[in-house]
């Protein structure tokens, strides 16, 4: 018996959206995925679906019309962030934070909003950061500018939802 069935991790995101079919289409077009199954409700909405991105299972279903919108925030490490971003935009995603390299994380990454409102952090890890010198990295004006931009671009997106 598997402790975590169906390839699930210790934590498996369950993403509740208005438009699960549109969400699944975005994920399938953006990432290398393996679909595990879709189970429709009698009205044609998705009652439950699972899709595997890399080593992680994502579960989703359609929200009821009278439920509040509950966007998810997902961080994904991929081999080629530039190619993944291009596919995400082609799939209907909107860039929230432009691609940039961070000396703080050692990643090249960006943020994208999918067609149903979830925010995806797309990242390719380039190098490990020596956290003993993290204070020096934060003190670098160029890194401080990047961090400020990353924070402000996310804040602008979130305030646009009010």
TrEMBL record:
Record-annotated VOC domain positions: 7-125
UniProt-listed InterPro entries: Glyas_Bleomycin-R_OHBP_Dase, Glyas_Fos-R_dOase_dom, VOC_core
Superkingdom assignment: Bacteria
Segments passing through the bilayer: none
PANTHER family given in the database record: BNAUNNG04460D PROTEIN-RELATED (PTHR34109), VOC DOMAIN-CONTAINING PROTEIN (PTHR34109:SF1)
Full protein name: VOC family protein
Organism of provenance: Kribbella albertanoniae
């Amino acid at each position: 018996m598997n402790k975590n069935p169906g390839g699930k991790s210790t934590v498996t995101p369950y993403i509740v959206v208005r438009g699960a079919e549109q969400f699944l289409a975005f994920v399938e077009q953006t990432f290398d995925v393996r679909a595990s199954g879709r189970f429709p409700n009698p009205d044609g909405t998705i009652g439950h679906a699972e899709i595997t991105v890399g080593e992680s299972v994502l579960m989703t279903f359609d929200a009821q019309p009278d439920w509040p919108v509950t966007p998810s925030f997902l961080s994904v490490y991929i081999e080629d962030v530039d190619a993944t971003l291009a596919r995400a935009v082609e799939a209907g995603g909107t860039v929230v934070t432009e691609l940039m390299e961070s000396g703080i994380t050692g990643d090249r990454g960006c943020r994208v909003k999918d067609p149903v409102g979830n925010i995806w952090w797309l990242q390719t890890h380039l190098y490990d950061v020596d956290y003993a010198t993290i204070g020096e990295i934060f003190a670098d004006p160029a890194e401080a500018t990047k961090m400020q931009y990353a924070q402000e671009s996310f804040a602008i997106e979130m305030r646009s939802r009010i």
